[in-house]
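Researcher: I've been going back and forth with a colleague about how CoA transferase might be arranged in three dimensions. Neither of us has a model we trust, so I'd like an independent prediction. The organism is Galbitalea soli, in case that matters for your notes. Sequence below.
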Amino acid sequence: MTDNEGAAVSQPRGVLSGYRVIDCTIAMAGPFAAQRLGDLGADVIKVEPTAGEWQRFAAAGGANGNRINVSFLSLNRNKRSLAVDLKSAGGKTVLEELVATSDVFLQNYRPGVAARLGVDYESLHAINPSIVYVSISGYGEDGPYKDRPGQDLLLQAMSGAMLSAGRRGEPPTPAGQYLADAVTGSTAFEGVLAALLHRERTGEGQLVTVNMLDALTTLQMQELSVFTVGGVPQERGDQPNAHVYIRAPYGVFATSDGYLALGFADLETLGTVIGEPSFAGMVPEVDGWTRRDELYEKTEARLRTAPTAEWLEKLLAVGIWAGPVYSYQDLVDDPQIAHNGTFVEYDHPTEGHIKTPGFPYKFSATPPRIDRGAPLVGQHSREVLAELGVTPERVTALFESGVVAGE
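Model: Here is an independent structure prediction for CoA transferase. You can compare it with whatever you and your colleague have in mind.
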């Protein structure tokens, strides 16, 4: 890998090498999608306000850094920063010049903002007809909810998924990750790849729209089809089964020293292992549905009598699907994670040694890699302007007028 200034390296570039991406997104979903493109070799230019993108000042978990907080650091590697005032005439001209040389444009502005800035699809398509333009929103480009805040928890709540787990009458529990943001980011990433493939075949750019509500809804393809096609009601029971559409016992159970996850067990075999005689003769695909709360309650009572490691050894020995419930530290220390190389480590010039999740895919010929850590505000403004052919005199004028900012 290179240093944070992007010095040349000898490793092969990623599969998207040669594509230029303009990242005009904020928060998580858009930057996450753009980072995935950068990990695969695309030249991602993060166009942000001269004061810096919003996420630079909103540290998840209160994890502030030296000059870059962890939230921004985690979502903006393999990008260059061009800090420019898009509300100014000079800034708009700079962006138009950049669009003319680019392949992909991503934005997640509030409805109407892109048009006011002159960076809507129609405007940029007129400059570069082959541009792949990706617009990310909370609920859709238009419609009754278009002005609602597209915030992760609100979308999780609206997706219906929270009422597929837990106890009847108790408050629903959100996912333990920023699920709506992550799924939407991955969906936008897929949309870019598909649109680029179409462009390779036809030369035609296009508008790709992604919204968080649809992303989370379509993620539940199987569950919602059970409801809409199968007509099975979404009813939680009196015990916290992990999903209403999966037979019991299915969920997380307390042991004498922690927790374990258990799913799809043969009831008679499970009864033998945990010492529950009433499971004898039960049929999983019948009793697993009709006696869900009873099965959960009895399984939980038995599992509380011994430690997790002991139960896992016994359950796995007879082919019952069971596993540990990890903390983040357990996950980081896991031998399979180490074997997979799931985390990557590198040195950042201002934030020091970094250990962070790496890449969800592998390529034999063009592997993803980290060429640079998350940039400082406008760290690459001068570099990008020079690539656009902007004269030194004009660069100086842009900086002195405040249209462009940087290191």
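Researcher: What would you highlight for our discussion?
Model: I'd start with this: The chain is about 40% helix and 15% strand. After that, consider the following. The chain has a mean pLDDT of 94.
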